[in-house]
Amino acid sequence: MVWFWLFLFAVSTDLVDGWLARRLGGGTEWGKWFDPLADKILTAFTWIGLAIIGRSTWWLAIPFIVRDIITGIVVHRAHTQGKALPTIRHGQIRAAFEGTALCVLLFHGEWLDVHWRSVGHMIGVIAIAWSFPAIIRAAIAWQPAQETR
Questions:
Q1: What is the C-alpha separation between 1 and 105, in angstroms, rounded?
Q2: Scanning 11, 63, 135, 146, which has the fewest C-beta atoms within 10 Å of its C-beta?
């Protein structure tokens, strides 16, 4: 139960931080690179931990972990080239579903006679489906820039 509250706190502070940065125009180049990387580290290690302790399955955790590794590499590559990847609506929707799935799987208590692990897995599957636009964007960003003549 303590992991649920820690994760919820981390996600909440990330949301407030992002909102404040956009609202006040306080974003930095370092923040544009580090914030998405920190998000990927948080979610990847949470999926790994849930799979290790049996609250999630590896078939659900592995696609998220692979996506986070690929996205982390793309974000790092874009940063080294002086670029920032724009936020896309699909990514925000995916993040909402993924965060909800992780919270449900972390909470995992007995409540209302619901099998919460199944609920968390179904929300996770929806989040994976929403990941495809981000994966496609990462694949496009991975392509070397073509020279114009």
A1: 10
A2: 146
State how far the Cα of 60 lies from the Cα of 117, in Å rounded to an integer.
12
Assigned domain for 104 exists: yes
Length of the chain: 149
CA–CA gap between residue 115 and residue 118 (Å, rounded) = 6
Give the pLDDT confidence score for residue 134 in this predicted structure. 65
Asked if residue 149 belongs to a domain, the reply is no
CA-to-CA distance for 58 and 62, rounded, in angstroms?
6
Element (DSSP H or E) covering residue 36: helix 29-53
List Cα–Cα distances, 130 to 15, 47, 49, 95, 133, in angstroms. Answer: 19, 17, 22, 9, 7
Write out the residue range of the structural domain in which residue 117 sits.
Answer: 2-142
